[in-house]
Specification:
The chain has 358 residues and is of the alpha/beta class. It is built from eleven helices and 16 strands. Helices cover 37% and strands 16% of the residues. The longest helix has 31 residues. The chain binds 5-S-methyl-1-O-phosphono-5-thio-D-ribulose (MRU).
């Protein structure tokens, strides 16, 4: 599997996901503004991946700073933080990365400016490496909910491309396959940007997982026919009550799951959980330009010129529709998420396990 993002010789190299699957090409960024442009323009997308990109962008921006003391260094980093924070509002991972970096700098404020610049590069690489390990752990917990022969539906792309590697929603699928379970995946195409068709189908085919592509409006018909055993999706931000923001259309799927008694799981690294907000109503929802809806690949117009468009990029699924949230620490019912904030929590007692023998 190709790498989504990497730090190579003082530059950030990102796979241009906007061209997949027709073209595998990479963009070299030696300026934090270009990294920010990449996040805005969806060259890189997916909550954990844009968190990593933000950290690498900040590391790039820091190298340009000429300050010779900590106060000036932090002041000059301010516009860099603001630029990455202004790119996309819904995924909490950008804010999470900025806060992690700020607190590291404050802890190490006595070190030289050159050392701090080097530390930022190390930290960005660490965020990427940790993300892969987190995803593997999500995979191990999540695979317990997959039985031999299951058909799993997923929406958008919460795969390797959306992360440092391995994916969140796809991780349980990869582990299930490694365990010898015969699974197949149904990928929603995911209008308007087609992350399911272009990215999820592409990466699962490379992993040798049988995948079938459907239009977004087919999911209900398949559930009614009993052809879907479970749904696993990712999240851009989950509130502490378990309300889940994810790609537009996720809410529709969750309601369909309830009607058809199909379990609805959310794979969520703890970095995607915003413990500072009590419910999904506080999650900022990105609205994007009309051309993603009126045109295919900004080239082929499919709607009349001048038509009114709403292009809401994410929706919030209320926690009552969520069967379990699968994190790197185990799977939990949404109502128990807030208990993870306590230091002395007994995770083993809180974890939900499948009622069948996997
Ligand atoms: O607009 P995108 O492609 O960034 O949206 C991505 C999603 O909605 C993913 O499901 C989410 O970020 C989780 S990625 C592990």
């Amino acid at each position: 599997m190709v790498k989504t993002i990497e730090w190579v010789n003082g530059k950030v190299i990102m796979l241009d996901q906007s061209r997949l699957p027709l073209e595998v090409s990479f963009i070299e960024c030696s300026d934090y503004r270009k990294v920010a442009e990449g996040i805005r323009e969806l060259w890189i997308r997916g909550a954990p991946a844009i968190g990593i990109a933000a950290a690498m962008g900040i590391a790039l921006g820091a190298q340009e700073i000429k300050a010779d003391n900590f106060t000036d260094f932090m002041r000059e980093l301010g516009p860099v933080f603001n630029e990455v924070l202004s790119t996309r509002p819904t995924a909490v991972n950008i804010k999470w990365a900025v806060e992690r970096i700020k607190s590291l700098l404050i802890q190490r404020r006595e070190e030289s400016i050159d050392r701090l610049k080097a530390l930022l590069i190390e930290e960005a690489k660490k965020i990427l490496e940790e993300d892969i390990e987190v995803n593997k752990a999500i995979g191990r917990w999540g695979a317990e909910f997959i039985k031999d022969g299951d058909t799993i539906l997923t929406h958008c792309n919460a795969g390797a491309l959306a992360t440092g590697g391995y994916g969140t929603a796809t991780a349980p699928m990869l582990v299930a396959k490694e365990e010898g379970k015969r699974i197949q995946v149904i990928a929603d195409e995911t209008r308007p940007v087609l992350q399911g068709a272009r990215l999820t189908a592409w990466e699962l085919m490379q992993e040798g997982i049988p995948v079938t592509l459907i239009t977004d409006n087919t999911a209900g018909a398949l559930m009614k026919r009993g052809e879907i055993d479970l749904v696993i999706v990712g999240t851009d931000r989950t509130a502490r009550n378990g309300d889940v923001a994810n790609k537009i259309g996720t809410y529709t799927l969750a309601v369909l799951c309830k009607e058809h008694k199909v379990p609805f799981y959310v794979a969520a690294p703890l970095s995607s959980i915003d413990f500072s907000i009590t419910s999904g109503e506080f999650i900022p929802i990105e609205e994007r330009g009309p051309e993603e809806v009126t045109c295919i690949f900004a080239k082929y117009r499919i709607a009349p010129d001048g038509v009114n468009v709403r292009n809401i990029a994410f929706d919030v699924t209320p926690h009552k529709y969520v069967t379990a949230i699968i994190t790197e620490k185990g799977a939990f019912i949404p109502g128990d998420l807030k208990k993870l904030m306590k230091k002395d929590v007994n995770l083993e007692r809180l974890r939900v396990r499948p009622y069948f023998k996997s």
